[in-house]
Write a structure and sequence with these properties.
Blueprint lengths: L2 E12 L2 E12 L3 E5 L6 H8 L7 E6 L2 E2 L11 E4 L11 H12 L3 H14 L14 H12 L6 E5 L7 H14 L4 E6 L2 H7 L2 E6 L2 E7 H8 L2 E6 L3 H8 L11 E4 L2 E6 L2 H15 L5 E5 L3 H9 L1
Parallel strand pairs: 3-8, 3-9, 6-7, 7-8
Antiparallel strand pairs: 1-2, 1-4, 4-5, 9-10, 11-13, 11-14, 12-13
Helix pairs in contact: 2-3, 4-5
């Protein structure tokens, strides 16, 4: 499987602040990559360098095997781009706006009508006659996706498309990205981790200017995730007593506590269970619940960034 996007050793500073530091990332063809990180981590900066809109201090970026050069947008005919806040001509209607975009991109008149009808249907705006200025934020995001897909790009870059939307708007955008999955490679930048788990094949976590972890969700969970064991007691005093037991103390530094329950984490959850059951037998304590919790992307993310 070839890489649609290849980033090797790029760095970017603004003044004395280094935002991206020797970053390496590859995005295989046909995948949906969740590009995640805290606000200000450098996700937008990275994507703008891939678009040739920002100049990297060093390193190399290739799209479909062609080198990206700052200010020269030849590689951008392979790319569709949806910024976090897309701008439109508000006096236009969606069909008028997409017709203008098709003229700019050089689509033929016959292809333009077919493609616009197809895309407006995909994004749920077919038959909408009102001007863009009266659109909701979610409707504008959907129109932005239609515009980004107009020229059938090899790579679609979406910069936090769901961040300012209500739950209904988020679902609409995710449903659209799910529909186009497999027809184009997608980079989906976000800090909403549940969205990534819903639609993405691969994940890359950006932290301290570099990729902290990357791979498929299953690979990341297998290699980096710690299994979690939840133990719940009927009384806080019982939980405190349990924590004082000598064999339990080595597990406490990697523990979460919430009310009457604790969550113990580790790579070998079976061994942790053995220790817990032995301790419970010796103390005579009986928890109300004990269960293994599935490792989530949120848990992995927090382990990386905190």
């Amino acid at each position: 499987m070839k890489d649609i996007l290849s980033i090797k050793g790029i760095s970017k500073s603004f003044g004395t602040q280094k935002v991206i530091d020797n970053l390496n990332l590859s995005v295989p063809e046909g995948t949906v990559l969740g590009f995640i990180g805290q606000n200000g981590a450098g996700k937008t900066t990275t994507m703008k360098m891939a678009l040739g809109l920002l100049e990297a201090d060093c390193g190399e970026i290739k799209v479909c095997g062609k080198t990206v050069r700052y200010g020269q947008t030849k590689t951008n005919h392979y790319i569709g781009y949806l910024p976090d806040v897309p701008e439109f001509y508000n006096y236009m209607k969606p069909t008028e706006y997409l017709t203008l975009c098709s003229e700019i991109t050089g689509l033929s008149q016959s292809e333009t009508k077919v493609r616009i009808d197809e895309l407006l249907s995909i994004v749920g705006l077919n038959g909408v006659k009102k001007r863009i200025g009266g659109f909701s934020r979610g409707m504008k995001q959907r129109l932005g996706i239609a515009q980004a897909l107009l020229s059938r790009p090899k790579l679609l870059i979406c910069d936090e498309p769901t961040s300012a939307l209500d739950p209904v708007g988020r679902k609409e955008i995710l449903d659209i990205l799910q529909k186009i999955k497999g027809t184009t490679t997608v980079i989906f930048s976000t800090h909403i981790l549940s969205d990534v788990e819903r639609i993405c094949d691969r994940v890359a976590v950006l932290h301290n200017g570099n990729i902290a972890i990357s791979g498929t969700l299953s690979e990341i969970k297998a290699m980096h995730g710690k299994e979690r064991l939840l133990i719940e007691f009927s009384k806080k005093s019982e939980m405190n007593q349990f924590k004082t037991f000598a064999t339990i103390k080595p597990l406490l530094p990697d523990m979460e506590e919430n009310g009457d329950e604790i969550i113990l984490k580790g790579k070998d959850i079976v061994q942790i269970q053995r220790v817990i059951i032995s301790a419970l037998a010796e103390t005579g304590l009986c928890p109300t619940k004990m269960e293994i919790m599935e490792s989530s992307l949120e848990n992995l993310f927090l382990e990386v960034v905190m």
